[in-house]
Design goal:
heterodimer; A: 111 residues; mainly beta; five-stranded antiparallel β-sheet; 11 strands; globular; B: 114 residues; seven-stranded mixed β-sheet; four-stranded antiparallel β-sheet; 0% helix
């Protein structure tokens, strides 16, 4: 059974720092991996989607990598800003076309 | 509308009451998903529709949960005889294609069963 783990559960860093969020999954048979952002009282916003054949995707200050063989993905945020404060979730699409989610990393960027 | 819309945003139900949660997906999107998110956890898959066909309902936790999408657009998630453990945020998502395309999420309905 696919399981997704995110470490750390919470992270607080000063504004301007670069940071890395980690996501690991137990079954490498995935179609894709997505990183989402969740703000209180709002839905989930898709940040980056990496297909299983890809190794990374970039959007602005965000870079996500995927190492399918080791079951790991990282989300790199450059030059963090207070507006980046949110909960970041990763999800893998498994062989049954279901999204399996991590519990999220709550990120706080201190001004 | 431009995004996925869910209503109501908040619902308080007495234990044993039936509730109906609505999802308006992005127009033209083929796929529609329902998820249940407990506090502090990631969303858990409930069910998947491709147009009006419910292709996967393996995540529905009990036969008290029922979902439909009769015309391939708006979907309703119904929970009968609500229990306290049903308290969660229910998220709806739609995507333009099948399975492996980007999903767009609504704001969710927070259900509290008292």
């Amino acid at each position: 059974k696919q399981e997704v783990t995110q470490i750390p559960a919470a992270l607080s860093v000063p504004e301007g720092e670069n940071l890395v969020l980690n996501c690991s999954f137990t079954d490498s048979a995935i179609y894709n991996l997505q990183w989402f952002r969740q703000d209180p009282g709002k839905g989930l916003t898709s940040l980056l989607l990496i297909q299983s054949s890809q190794r990374e995707q970039t959007s602005g200050r965000l870079n996500a990598s995927l190492d399918k063989s080791s079951g790991r993905s990282t989300l790199y945020i450059a030059a963090s800003q207070p507006g980046d404060s949110a909960t970041y979730l990763c999800a893998v699409m498994d062989s049954n076309y279901q999204l399996i989610w991590g519990a999220g990393t709550k990120l706080i960027i201190k001004p | 509308g431009a995004g996925v819309s869910q209503s109501p945003r908040y619902k308080v139900a007495k234990r044993g009451q039936d509730v109906a949660l609505r999802c308006d997906p992005i127009s033209g999107h083929v796929s529609l998903f329902w998820y249940q998110q407990a506090l502090g956890q990631g969303p858990e898959f409930l069910t998947y529709f491709q147009n009006e066909a419910q292709l996967d309902k393996s995540g529905l936790p009990s036969d008290r949960f029922f979902a439909e999408r009769p015309e391939g657009s708006v979907s309703t998630l119904k929970i009968q005889r609500t229990q306290q453990e049903d308290s969660a945020v229910y998220l709806c998502a739609s995507s333009p294609g099948q399975f492996d395309t980007e999903a767009f999420f609504g704001q969710g309905t927070r259900l509290t069963v008292v």
